[in-house]
Amino acid sequence: MSFTLYERRGAIGLVTLNRPERLNAISGALLADFLAALRAAIDDAEAAVIVVSGAGKAFCSGDDLKEFEQQSASQEAARAHIVSIQQVTRLMLGCDKPIVGAVHGWAVGGGFEWLLNCDIVVAADDLVAFFPEMNLGQFVTGGVSHLLPRALGYQRAMELLLLGERQSADRLERLGLVNFVVPRRHMMARAMEVAETIAGKSRFSVSQLKALLNRDLGADLWRAVEREETITIEALGNKDAKERSAGFMTRKRG
């Protein structure tokens, strides 16, 4: 079974996280399949635009804490996991194809980061997004330590990252982190409409626009991605993170 699906509809490449029974939580297998699907979409010469979405009731509920012990078993295991997560960001932001996010339900931790790595986001009205990392003794990835302050300003970025409060689709739209909010039943249709509009434009001009805007993000973004890797690997091996993650799982089972 593939935990991420890729198909093409006309000039649109569809990448769908496909672990609905776990709310598309990030396991090692889902991460590997997501990277493979992204590469397939990027390499597909017929795909001008990529749409990323999640199957079932959520976009992505973040790291699967059931795999925390495995991911943090050694520095090598932690490094392999975090480098793979950061590779998703490198592909999404570094590729020359626009990525439209079709995001609904939960977008938590890594799921929120992947939302922010999209170029345009169509959000369902049931979207709830937040960063739990500070509560769990872990650390953010996805370049958000650089992207959020640029998008929101320092204090608002600190609010989202430090407090970890749940953000509704409407608030994310007011903050400028999603472009459109639509009823859940219309989300994919609206995302496809946006993607088709982009696909009808000059592929050369669109690809150069994305490359130029991402180049404007500067080397600081990629330095932030590298620094996030280092800090997150250290956090995964930290006693505090292990205790907090174990406590969360105990409360969840209770």
Which characteristics define this entry?
3-stranded mixed beta sheet, 2-enoyl-CoA Hydratase, Chain A, domain 1, globular, 9 strands, single chain, about 250 residues, alpha/beta, 6-stranded mixed beta sheet
Put the structure in a nutshell.
The protein has helices at residues 28-43, 68-71, 75-94, 110-116, 133-136, 144-152, 154-163, 169-175, 187-199, 203-217, 219-236, 239-253; strands at 4-9, 12-17, 49-54, 99-103, 106-108, 120-124, 128-130, 167-168, 180-182.
Number of strands: 9
**How many domains make up the 3D coordinates?**
1
Which strand order spans the largest sheet, edge to edge or round the barrel?
Answer: 1-2-3-4-6-9
Largest sheet: 6 strands, mixed
Under CATH, the homologous superfamily reads 2-enoyl-CoA Hydratase, Chain A, domain 1
CATH topology group: 2-enoyl-CoA Hydratase, Chain A, domain 1
Stretches where pLDDT is under 50 for at least 5 consecutive residues are: none
Count up the helices.
Answer: 12
CATH architecture tag: Alpha-Beta Complex
The H-and-E topology, N to C, reads as EEHEHHEEHEEHHHEHEHHHH
Can you tell me about this structure?
This protein has 254 residues and is α/β, with parallel strands linked by helices. It has 12 helices and 9 strands. A 6-stranded mixed β-sheet has the order 1-2-3-4-6-9, with helices on both faces. Strands 5-7-8 form a 3-stranded mixed β-sheet. Helix 1 links the parallel strand 2 and strand 3. It is globular, with a radius of gyration of 17 Å. The mean pLDDT is 93.
